[in-house]
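We emphasize that the prediction below concerns an isolated chain of 215 residues; any contacts that depend on oligomerization or on bound cofactors are therefore not represented. The input was used exactly as deposited, without trimming of termini.
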Amino acid sequence: MRPSKKDSKPSAESGRLGAIYRVAAQMICEKGFDATSMNDIAEAVGITKAGIYHHISGKRDLLFRIMNFGLDELDEEVIAPARATPDAEQRLRLIINNHVQLITRRSTRQGNNPITIVVDEVAGLAPAHRRKIDQRKRAYVDLIRETLTDLKDEGKLNDVDVTASAFSLLGMILWLSRWYSPEGRLTPEQVAEQITSIALGGLLRSQSRSPRRSA
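Result of the prediction step, given as a token string:
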């Protein structure tokens, strides 16, 4: 499901929705989905409960919207640029770098990225919404698998299973949302460089790895 026209307008209203999603995601991370009330979210955002319901029909709808919001960011900042990159090795570098920086830039002082964490909390969704979220997540995994398959066909991939490698890479990236702190000693760019180096060191044959290109 894509955001409605009202949700996607580049306006103060869409900015308000983004604030609601981020605050709600942080509260769900801290308190759990069941223990987070719409009253709590409205108070934290600084609007009335009626103001929340002007945009969102209920808490399950809010959870679905948060997940779509996070996946929309992933589409824009990671998936679309990757699909526009024909070279498989550079595409893989771009996927890792952009996804890591998306997570680290959005991390809070609590040391997590609430949107990224909540995207995995599918148990609270209605079945139809869960299928839609799973479909969007599966499309990203398929992109990573296709990229690794391209590298395998080019003789650049180590002797590893493509599917296991795709999920392992994704797991390493997503775990950042639970341990990275913006107050730590590593900048988002440094973390991206470290994760890229570790990942490519395990996935690519040493003779095929090209030097990292400057942006």
